[in-house]
Design brief:
The protein is of the alpha+beta class and about 160 residues long. The protein folds into 2 domains: about 1-30, no CATH class; about 60-155, Sufe protein. Chain: A. About 40% of the residues lie in helices and about 20% in strands. Strands 1, 2, 3, 4 and 5 form a 5-stranded antiparallel β-sheet that branches. A hairpin with a 2-residue loop joins β3 and β4. It is rod-shaped and about 90 Å long.
């Protein structure tokens, strides 16, 4: 027997009501997406100094056995420039700082507050510019990679 036969209209009303109530419960149980606020200086790197905004890789000179701080090229992406500064100690990558990256609007800030630390961890783990792209931050990831590679290339000169 079919449950929605025409000679049982009350059963059809009960099933339709139950389906409506179930749908409303599911709809109301969804949580809206909240954007994390980007405040404080812990998530934002220091603004670039006037010497680090010039094109090309720059940095302090040092031997391969000392400590070197090098700034990579500023790479123009669709949403703005990306530039990183690296610190090498005895030829080992010890620190990577994003000097410049897109942060013009809240969405850029939200994306990069998540992507920049992840890219930094990847670079320090890989000890190279061979890092994965962060999903949702493709342009920033590509700019970060290119700037990091230019800084590492200038260290090997």
């Amino acid at each position: 027997m079919h449950t929605l036969r025409k000679n049982r209209p009350l059963r059809r009303v009960v099933l339709a009501s139950a389906a409506t109530v179930s749908g409303m419960v599911l709809l109301l149980s969804l949580k809206p997406h909240t954007t994390p606020s980007v405040t404080g200086t812990a998530t934002s790197p220091a603004p670039p100094s006037s010497s680090s905004t010039s094109g090309g890789a720059t940095g302090s000179s040092g031997s391969a056995t000392g400590t070197q701080t090098l700034t990579g090229d500023s790479v123009q992406t669709r949403y703005g420039p990306v530039q990183v500064r690296v610190t090498l100690k005895n030829g080992k990558l010890t620190d990577v700082t994003a000097v410049t990256y897109p942060q013009e609007n809240p969405r850029d800030q939200q994306i990069n507050a998540y992507a920049i630390p992840q890219l930094t961890r990847e670079a320090l783990t890989a000890q190279s510019a061979d890092i994965d792209t962060v999903s949702g931050a493709t342009y920033t990831s590509e700019g970060y990679h290119d700037s990091l590679q230019s800084a590492l290339d200038s260290a090997s000169r």
